[in-house]
Design brief:
about 300 residues; alpha/beta; two-stranded antiparallel ribbon; about 20% strand
Length: about 300
């Protein structure tokens, strides 16, 4: 029986796949939790073993050669199938929880208040919610799906279920000093009050300003916060004007904790339910349909 050809080191193939996909040795090292030098050594060893150049310089980054693209296509598919298989083996096949990741602010202000409705409408879905601070990993490790606000381009390995267009607008407490006067002025008067902002969504105020024909250089920022949840709590407390996605403040607008005198505008972003790999799970489409109705 003919012996099949030996495969290169699995670690070398993992390093190659990450570097080729991210077009960066440094980013590959960060994703794999190893040093830049370790990835470089693995790539050199793989090229020497194959006798082929797999990368070429592209400005400050790298890009796969023709041979590298062939190997990337094979390795990305293989690793995706391996991840899906391992995930399915680690989970019980029946009665297992559906792990949904979402940013902590979205979890606290939007998902949790709607859990009772979700349990009533989808009684067969056992949900486990995982707060995610910071960016999601390319393979959404440990998650069945992720609910997020974002925009294209999305990672190539994701399946993206678009749920609704993101709409944002300024909000503030009616108890804020000068709120009554500000509420009856045009949006350009907004800089007469502190503009609260957050590190997790630095593009929000500039996006809103551009959509309202305002110069982003005219924005005068006040206190900054690490997360959107704290930003909105500060707005409720009357500390300034916050910029927020409409669904996250809808309940506050109804009960009068916040007001939005200039309404909300569509952005290029969207609410999306994302999964990694090609694994089919009917719970994803069921949850996506339910989320769309909630966001409508």
């Amino acid at each position: 029986m003919k012996t099949p050809p030996a495969l290169p080191s699995l670690n070398a193939l993992r390093a190659f796949e990450a570097a080729a996909r991210l077009r960066s040795v440094s980013q590959a090292a960060t994703e794999l939790h190893v040093t830049h030098g370790a990835v470089s050594r693995q790539l050199r060893a793989l090229e020497e073993e194959l006798g082929l150049a797999l990368f070429e310089r592209d400005g400050r980054g790298i890009r796969p050669t023709a041979a590298g693209n062939r190997l990337l296509e094979a390795t990305s598919g293989a690793f995706s199938q391996l991840r899906d298989c391992i995930a399915s083996l680690r989970r019980p096949q029946r009665g297992d929880a559906f792990v949904l990741g979402c940013p902590g602010s979205l979890l606290a202000r939007w998902m949790i208040p709607r859990l009772q409705d979700l349990q009533r409408d989808l009684p067969g879905l056992t949900l486990h919610l995982a707060a995610q601070d910071g960016d999601f990993t390319p393979h959404l490790e440990g998650l069945d799906a992720a609910l997020m606000l974002g925009q294209a381009p999305w990672p190539a390995s994701w399946q993206v279920h678009v749920l609704a267009t993101e709409r944002i607008g300024p909000v503030f407490s009616p108890a804020m000093h000068g709120a009554h006067v500000l509420a009856h002025q045009p949006a350009t008067a907004i800089n007469t009050h502190p503009l609260l902002h957050t590190r997790s969504r630095p593009q929000a105020w500039p996006t809103w300003a551009a959509l309202n024909d305002m110069q982003t250089t005219d924005l005068e920022y006040g206190t900054g916060f690490e997360h959107l949840y704290y930003l909105l709590e500060a707005a409720v407390a009357g500390l300034g004007v916050a910029i927020a996605p409409e669904p996250l403040v809808a309940d506050d607008l109804v009960n009068g904790r916040l007001i939005a005198p200039w309404g909300f505008v569509d952005t290029e972003g969207c609410w999306a339910l994302c999964t990694a790999g090609n694994r089919e799970d009917p719970r994803v489409s069921q949850l996506a349909d339910w989320l769309r109705k909630q966001l409508a």
